[in-house]
Amino acid sequence: MAAADSQVLIGLCDVPIGKSCTSTFFTNKIGDLPDLLPAFSLRYPYCAICGSALVHVVQVYCPLGASRYHRTINVFACPQQQCSGKTESWKVLRSQCLESEIKAKSDSQRMKVKEPPMATSDWCEGADDWGIEEEEGTSASPAHNHTNTQSSFLPKLDVSYGLQALSLTEAHQSASPRPELVFPESVPIFRPYYVCVLEEGDIDEQTDMEDAHRLLREYEMREGVAVMQLESFEGQGELERYEKTDAKHGDKVFSKFMKCISLCPKQILRYSWNGSPLFITDPSSSLTQTVPPCSYCGNPRVFEFQLMPALVSLLESINSTSELLLEFGTVLVYTCRDSCWQPGRDSPAEEFVLVQKDPDHQLFSRPC
Description:
Blueprint (H helix, E strand, L loop, with lengths): L8 E8 L12 E2 L24 E7 L7 E9 L12 E9 H14 L19 H6 L16 E4 L5 E5 L25 E7 L9 H15 L7 E3 L3 E3 L12 H10 L7 E3 L15 H4 L10 E7 L22 E7 L12 E8 L4 H4 L4
């Protein structure tokens, strides 16, 4: 169960990432190629089922509040039809580094740049300006020109690993060049978009409500179930009731899923570190056994975020001559509770992903 004061962050699709824009590992985005941390190397992931190169789905910058590490998570999936909806065809990679490592890498690259010979005029008019241009040239700068809506997913982590609070802050943009990436030939790429972030409690109740009510009415008519409002009972907390006990497909979990996202049906991502996931189908009773402990330190993994059905319609290939197929109900990402990391590590750590199929594909297949 999530802590009582847990907050949920909502990710929404923002403007496309244009050719003139750049991104770094600080950037929350859909599609594109992953941005590696400085001095990192990536052995590009392949599908465990068919062996095809995976496509990059989302990148989330999500440092833990009590940690000194920058932290980015990249999610990949296989776009082949025979692998659609299968957990084995997805991969999640977590990358971390310290600010000192970024600075060291930047300093190392500046040392390799050959300084031009000093002219005699440098001793004259510009003598008092020594160092100013260099400092300005190496100061932190935004990774792109869209920082007004770029927020990071920042859960607060205390020594007992409890989720205390969540905050939305602009990621500090360090001046670090994009690492050289080597990819296999014909890597599939989804069209890139920025992701903006807001707290679920800040969503205007009137936002998209007309569309939400339409979807709910269609669902209720088709499934013969009326989704009732949550009602509070003193001493019992919030209980959810339904006019009929079962939908036609017998999935009350899906009905709850629809109710929860109706306030913001266009959400593409829900973030709640160490919180409770929103299941689209009934999870197995042995879910705690399904999610394995961290393969690096042996500690338990916790839920961190999930991808939502509205993301499916946004995943389009940048190549108009090729079609990339990726369908899912929701994708649940679980990561090491301690976010363990060995100093000096230069490659991402693989985390656990669980894919749930959409029990009612037609409901989410309409464009937003």
